């Protein structure tokens, strides 16, 4: 995934759940970036486990990523 690639948020969750979703998407071949929507940087506002993290993928793969995340694990 290049830095210039257009990323969209497909899911927002607590830190641990976001990391689990990231690994799930990556196992399906979808590149993932975690961060806060708009800045691309995780904002540690309230301490471990409480920050909301955006799960972002390339726009061209967003529909597939959403479909994967909706399926039971």
Structural commentary:
- This protein has helices at 15-27, 62-70; strands at 7-14, 33-35, 52-58.
- The protein has two helices and three strands.
- It has a three-stranded antiparallel sheet.
- Helix content is 30%, strand content 25%.
- It has a single domain (7-70), classed as Alpha-Beta Plaits (2-Layer Sandwich).
- The chain starts with 6 loop residues before the first strand and ends with a helix.
- The protein is of the alpha+beta class and 73 residues long.
What would the CATH topology be? Alpha-Beta Plaits
Record field, number of beta strands: 3
Largest beta-sheet characterization: 3 strands, antiparallel
What is the count of DSSP helices, taking H or I runs of 4+ residues?
2
Question: What is the CATH first-level class name?
Answer: Alpha Beta
What structural class do you assign from the helix and strand content? alpha+beta
Shape, per Cα inertia axes:
globular
> Overall pLDDT, averaged?
83
Beta strand %: 15-25%
Poorly predicted ranges: 38-44
**Strands side by side in the biggest sheet:** 1-3-2
Helix content: 25-40%
Any idea how many domains?
1
Radius of gyration: 12 Å
**SSE succession:** EHEEH
Instruction: Supply the CATH architecture.
Output: 2-Layer Sandwich
Gap from first CA to last CA: 25 Å
